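Exercise 7. Given the encoded structure of a 684-residue chain, write a plausible sequence.
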């Protein structure tokens, strides 16, 4: 039931509630209070202590208007024993004051603070008592909710009350069976009880609140996974073009590569080939550490599609990376007669028109680009395979949008999603449950582990001297400026300043600068110069995070490393260690380091395995470290929080899979309630 249908809730309030993610009564019920206030007991005036939030009561003794820095009205209440309290109002109406005549009894709730005339409460909530002073005490704790401008606690409380009332009437509850399934252990409360506890706990029930919250988190995670599993089931009912790679072409492809494929690459190739040959869309997530060689796997899949008469869209997160993919893939595929083309946002005018036309008519087989591939004007002739690189930047919606583009005569394209950010196993259970997994767990031969050190910022000077030395030996280096949670503009400025500083300090070193605000062409120029050794040192923001491949660059300095996600640091570090000889990564940090920060940098110093790093990072974060969401890029939950609730996931998966087996339609209500709006099933 929408909140707009509740009496007294106008369109204005509705709009504001929407900001809090509250559209229905169910939404308010899963809007978990921040804290509770105890208004079940009255604290006598003589027992109040400063700093406490309390419910108290007394008889109005006087009302005075006080002139001060701000006008205020002070209503003094007292009790027989002589204790008194001032209620101070900065905003008041004449009518309000006239009700507060001496002798009237009132009850109020607020925080006790020291005031110029003794203890006071500023703008307490209050009401007048008519007769019996002990009448009408709350029996429950009063919830305080997270809120936003213009939504009062009273409104939220009233809505929660209404929601609970409807549940009491039997509306919106789950079937007994589903209710029993949607909890971590039989001892956890059922939904109705959990909601009642969270919004109206009795004072004695406070210890039960964590279990109640966990009950909701479990249900939410379950709904999330159910949603993805259903998406999976539905997608697998669609038809897809079976794609096959003729043996001779496979041989030619292999023979044209400058290296033999690793065993892991071959295994993954086979997994993909098997999926592509089916008449159902492949939905596969390919995980492989930085530098493990995913591009060549993508190229082979693309070849498979083109050889079967279908087009391929390859989507990269940045133009730089799209261009690099284009450079690699076109070199591998051109000798086999495959037309590859780039489509970038910066293509304008005739160039763009021509490109769109080639895509529409099917002249080109493989189209490589960025988000620009999503645009409405981009029409494919026969899209049979979608390859998305670096999945962490593309959400479920985009995944669906691109797939729908390919819908042709009821046939949907296959999907291959590639990521260098390994996803911890538990996390994958809710975020990627709609996908099958392939893993490249082996690096091409000849890679050396990057020697990683952590150095405090005070020793920058030494680090800079080291660069001079390194460059003198004919090698190249990266200097990565990271400023998290700052605007892109600030990041670019930081990089500019650092570049200037390094130019000044290192006169013999050719310093280049790369950041997000450079125009595409300029970025290219800088990258090209660096590749061709016309630059020795590349100062950049994290735009080089993905994909850049310059083997001679074997030294990387990363600033503010302590503030970055491990996965991202590992990605950055993956840019070095590709060439001959030893390579190094210096993690510059600002001291002092917190204990967790030290542990995290230690993980990175010791491990070079992206999967291990991801799991360790996850464990550390599960132990309470809060980190920006920037690196996860995954939609947040309403009541659950990962990794805190990660322990629930194995059981969530078990229940989910059983429900799907027994009766896939039964959990419909769960899915609709928790994730219905965020996944567009209607289009599926
Ligand atoms: P990523 O998985 O990070 O996308 P890339 O596909 O960019 O990795 O590959 C990294 C580098 O390794 C590239 O220069 C690529 O040509 C090279 N490479 C890929 N596979 C092999 C292999 N089997 N043997 C040697 N080099 C390889
Ligand atoms: Mg890559």
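Solution.
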């Amino acid at each position: 039931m929408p909140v707009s249908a509740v009496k007294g809730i106008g369109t204005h309030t509705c709009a504001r509630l929407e900001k809090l993610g509250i559209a229905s009564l169910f939404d308010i019920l899963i809007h978990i209070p921040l804290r509770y206030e105890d208004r079940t007991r009255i604290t006598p005036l003589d027992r109040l202590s400063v700093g406490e939030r309390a419910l108290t009561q007394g008889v109005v003794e006087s009302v005075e208007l006080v002139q001060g820095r701000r006008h205020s009205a002070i209503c003094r209440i007292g009790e027989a024993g002589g204790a008194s309290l001032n209620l101070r109002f900065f905003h008041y109406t004449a009518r309000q004051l006239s009700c507060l005549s001496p002798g009237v009894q009132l009850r109020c709730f607020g925080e006790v603070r020291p005031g110029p005339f003794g203890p006071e409460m500023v703008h307490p909530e209050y009401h007048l008592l008519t007769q019996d002073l002990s009448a009408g005490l709350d029996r429950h704790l009063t919830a305080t909710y997270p809120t936003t401008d213009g939504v009062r606690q009273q409104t939220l409380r009233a809505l929660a009350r209404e929601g609970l009332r409807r549940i009491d009437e039997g509306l919106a509850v789950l079937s007994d069976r589903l209710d029993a399934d949607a909890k971590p252990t039989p001892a956890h409360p059922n939904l109705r009880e959990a909601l009642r506890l969270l919004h109206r706990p009795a004072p004695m029930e406070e210890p039960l609140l964590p279990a109640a919250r966990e009950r909701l988190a479990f249900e939410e995670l379950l709904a999330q996974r159910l949603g993805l599993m259903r998406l999976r089931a539905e997608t697998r009912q669609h038809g897809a073009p079976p794609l096959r790679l003729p043996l001779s072409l496979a041989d030619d492809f292999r023979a044209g590569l400058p290296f033999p494929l690793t065993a892991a690459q071959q295994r993954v190739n086979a997994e993909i080939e098997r999926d592509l040959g089916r008449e159902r869309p492949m939905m596969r997530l390919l995980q492989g550490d930085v530098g493990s060689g995913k591009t060549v796997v993508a190229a082979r899949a693309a070849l498979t599609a083109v050889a079967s008469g279908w087009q391929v869209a390859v989507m990269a997160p940045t133009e730089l990376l799209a261009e690099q993919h284009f450079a690699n893939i076109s070199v591998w595929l051109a000798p086999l007669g495959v037309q590859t083309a780039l489509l970038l946002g910066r293509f304008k005018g005739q160039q763009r028109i021509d490109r769109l036309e080639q895509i529409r008519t099917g002249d080109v087989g493989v189209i490589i680009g960025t988000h620009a591939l999503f645009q409405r004007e981009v029409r494919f002739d026969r899209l049979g395979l979608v390859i998305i690189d670096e999945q962490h930047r593309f959400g479920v919606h985009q995944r669906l949008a691109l797939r729908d583009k390919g819908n042709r005569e009821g046939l949907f394209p296959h999907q291959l999603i590639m990521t260098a950010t390994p996803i911890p196993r538990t996390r994958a259970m809710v975020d990627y449950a709609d996908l099958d997994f392939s893993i490249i767990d082996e690096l091409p031969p000849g890679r050396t582990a990057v020697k990683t050190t952590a150095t405090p910022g005070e020793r920058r000077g030494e680090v800079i001297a080291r660069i001079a030395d390194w460059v003198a030996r004919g090698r190249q280096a990266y200097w990565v400026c990271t400023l998290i949670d700052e605007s892109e503009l600030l990041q670019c400025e930081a990089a500019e300043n650092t570049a200037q500083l390094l130019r000044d300090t290192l006169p013999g070193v050719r310093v280049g600068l790369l950041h997000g605000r450079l125009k595409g062409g300029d970025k290219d120029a800088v990258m090209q110069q660096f590749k061709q050794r016309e630059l020795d040192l590349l100062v950049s923001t994290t735009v080089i995070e993905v994909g850049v491949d310059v083997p001679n660059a074997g030294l990387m300095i990363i600033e503010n490393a302590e503030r970055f996600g491990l996965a991202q640091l590992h990605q950055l570090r993956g840019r070095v260690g590709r060439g001959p000889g030893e390579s190094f990564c210096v993690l510059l940090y600002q001291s002092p380091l917190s204990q967790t920060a030290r542990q995290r940098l230690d993980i990175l110093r010791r491990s070079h395995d992206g999967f291990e790093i991801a799991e360790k990072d996850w464990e550390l974060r599960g132990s309470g470290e809060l980190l920006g969401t920037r690196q996860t890029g995954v939609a947040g939950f309403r009541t659950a929080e990962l990794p805190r609730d990660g322990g629930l996931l194995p059981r969530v998966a078990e229940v989910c899979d059983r429900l799907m087996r027994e009766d896939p339609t039964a959990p419909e209500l769960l899915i609709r309630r928790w994730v219905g709006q965020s996944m567009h099933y209607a289009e599926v």
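Remark. The radius of gyration is 31 Å. Students should compare their own answers with the one above.
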